[in-house]
Amino acid sequence: MRARGPAAWIAPLRAAWAVWQPAPESIPWDVRLTADASLPEPQGPLFEAIPHSQDGVCTLVASGFEGKVSAASGTALLRAHPQASPGDLGYFLRVVLAIQAFARGGMLFHTAGIVHREQGYAFFGVSGSGKTTAAHFSTPDPVLNDDLVLLWPAATGWQMYATPFGKRRGDVRVAALRALLRLLKDQDVFLAPLSPGRALGELVANTPVLSADSLWLPEMLARWETLLSVVPVYALHFRRDATFWEVIDAELG
């Protein structure tokens, strides 16, 4: 993703993205960040804005921000007040990546991506469900990201890629996706299959950006159904220790 804009904005973004290894099939997009003092000062973070899509263009508007992302042309423009923070600009790049990935056949997914015995496991759930906890108790396994990963189709299934968002551990940047695990805090540790309907609902709810706009829903459901035809999904009941890996290894390893 080629981002252009004021040096004070671009430098921290480039540092964060320097170690990211994108999916090989992804096509570079042209992203422009423009400082516009005629806009009002931001009254809150950009991530509170709700994306809206129409005729292939996604708009993101909030106090101090006006953004447009076009999947067809592979371009994105954000006009922002000069007081905008690097975090706001980073969120706009997250929106661009989510739309870019979906347009090319992949998906950005709100999950902790952990590589265990050279296989990728996606631990997902609502905020507070335990993604960061799962990553902590997986030491020293590599963590692609403890918040957002990129899922990408491959000839033998699906791949899970690291992204510049959240925290990472180790040098691994991609792994074959072995299973999707919906985190549920419990005193007992066990895996339980999720019904297809519940699995789809949970996965859509954890698909950032796209789940905010109903126009994406039909294609998003079809994409997840394709993934679930080759990747299993379970509810993982776990407690605050590493015993969940014993269960995973016994049933999926």
Describe this entry's structure for a reader.
This protein is an alpha+beta fold and 253 residues long. It folds into two domains: 102 residues, no CATH class; 146 residues, Rossmann fold, CATH 3.40.50. Strands 1-2-6-5-4-3 form a six-stranded mixed β-sheet, with helices on one face. Strands 7-8-12-11-10 form a five-stranded mixed beta barrel. A hairpin with a 4-residue loop joins strand 5 and strand 6. The longest helix is centred in the middle third of the chain and has 18 residues.
Cα-based radius of gyration, to the nearest Å: 18 Å
Strand order in the largest sheet: 1-2-6-5-4-3
Q: How much helical structure, as a percent, in the residues? A: 25-40%
Output the CATH topology of the largest domain.
Rossmann fold
Mean of the pLDDT scores? Answer: 92
Number of domains: 2
Question: Strand-and-helix sequence, N→C?
Answer: EHEEEEEHEEHEEEEEHHEH
Residue stretches low in confidence (pLDDT < 50, at least 5 long) are: none
* Beta strand %: 25-35%
Query: What form results from the Cα inertia axes?
Result: globular
Category from helices, strands and their pairing: alpha+beta
Summarize, please.
By secondary structure, this protein is α+β, with helices and mostly antiparallel strands. 26% of the residues lie in helices and 33% in strands.
